[in-house]
Design brief:
This protein has about 375 residues and is of the alpha+beta class. It is built from eight helices and seven strands. The protein is elongated and about 130 Å long. About 0% of the residues have low confidence.
């Protein structure tokens, strides 16, 4: 049976039970004051005058009318219950229709249930929010897949072109060809590793343990110091011990990506990068600031999208694979944190990572 039919039968059954109880109560009270047979008053002639009801007569008159009332209540309960159940379930019908459209692949449809707030309205609003997030996620995944396909196809196409040129010109410089093939292959490997790291961070397949962000910042600085010296960028680190809970490898990758991005996207000369850590009530901060070109809010808002290299502010030859900040954002979200980007007034970028602080060690 459908839910509407079940509700209809429930309404009609409840109305019938209430009617029977009401009639039984009335009948019970009447029986208390109606005699079973006619009474003869002493001193009278013995012949009753007027209307004198007895229990048998009252039952004969009352029972058919009670049965008619119950039949009316049954009919009224079925018809009224059917109409009432339909009105009550109308919002659920709209939600079901939207669910079927979503199942068929149409994520743009919204329920937008009118009326006052109730359980159905709350359910519809939550479902609309879920559809909105799902639509945005699917669009992002499609865009990411298209960009990844394009980025992976590019080095393969370049390698194919280089090999065709070498085949047509056997006397070409083999050393130069090998160098170019090695560069293209290295780029393809870096892109593949970045995609794997991004997938691993999204799946949150890691074991959490206390990690000091200040140590991660220092280790990332030691790793990338030669790159910074090569491009004339000064790196300064500082701050307090800031312990978060997460994966040391992923958090080190987070600090490394942010520092690498700050070094690559910097001034042509005499640029600076500052890494700092801080502790807040219930959270810890990792901040990376770098000098560079003046940025707008619109430009900054797109930098965490996959394959957004910020070409207007990048040095030629050091644009990377376009996944640095995207990976940083994914790692931050996987650790239940937030990553905030803001342009610096004097040019450059400030990146702030806020993560939940690690629980204090027992006895510490």
């Amino acid at each position: 049976m459908s839910v509407r039919l079940k509700l209809t039968l429930s309404y009609a059954g409840f109305l019938m039970v209430a009617g029977v109880l009401l009639l039984a109560t009335v009948w019970g009270f009447l029986l208390r004051y109606v005699p079973e047979r006619a009474l003869i008053v002493p001193g009278s002639t013995g012949t009753p005058t007027g209307v004198f009801p007895v229990r048998s007569n009252l039952l004969h008159v009352f029972a058919p009318r009670a049965a008619a009332v119950l039949a009316f209540l049954l009919l009224f309960g079925l018809v009224g219950g059917w109409i009432l159940a339909g009105r009550m379930l109308a919002p659920l019908t709209r939600i079901t229709h939207a669910t079927r459209l979503a199942t068929a692949g149409s994520l743009a449809h919204r329920i937008r249930l009118p009326g006052r707030s109730d359980e159905f309205r709350d359910l519809a609003d939550v479902f609309d929010g879920m559809l909105e997030q799902l639509e945005a996620h699917v669009a992002e995944q499609r865009r990411f897949a298209a960009n990844a396909s394009h980025e992976l196809r590019t080095p393969l196409a370049i390698s194919k072109a280089l090999l065709e040129v070498a085949r047509r010109d056997p006397d070409a410089d083999t050393g130069e060809l090998l160098d170019r093939l090695e560069a293209v292959n290295t780029r393809a490997i870096d892109l593949t590793e970045a995609l794997l790291l991004l997938s691993r961070a999204e799946q949150r397949t890691f074991t959490r343990e206390p990690v000091d962000l200040s140590l991660m910042a220092e280790e990332a600085t030691e790793t990338l110091l030669p790159l910074a010296e090569k491009h004339g960028v000064g790196v300064k680190t500082g701050g307090e011990v800031a312990t978060a809970s997460g994966s040391p490898a992923l958090l080190l990758q987070l600090a490394t990506n942010l520092l690498h991005n700050a070094i690559v996207h910097n001034l042509p000369e005499h640029g600076t990068v500052r890494l700092g850590t801080a502790v807040r009530p219930g959270s810890v901060l990792l901040t990376v600031e770098n000098t560079g070109e003046q940025l707008t809010e619109e430009q900054v808002a797109t930098l965490t999208e996959p394959f957004q290299r910020g070409s207007d502010r990048a040095r030629s030859g050091h644009t990377g694979v376009g996944l640095g900040l995207a990976i940083a954002r994914t790692i931050t979200q996987a650790h239940d944190g937030t990553l905030t980007l803001a342009p610096r007034p004097g040019g450059g970028l400030r990146v702030t990572v806020e993560l939940p602080a690690a629980a204090p060690h027992p006895g510490g």
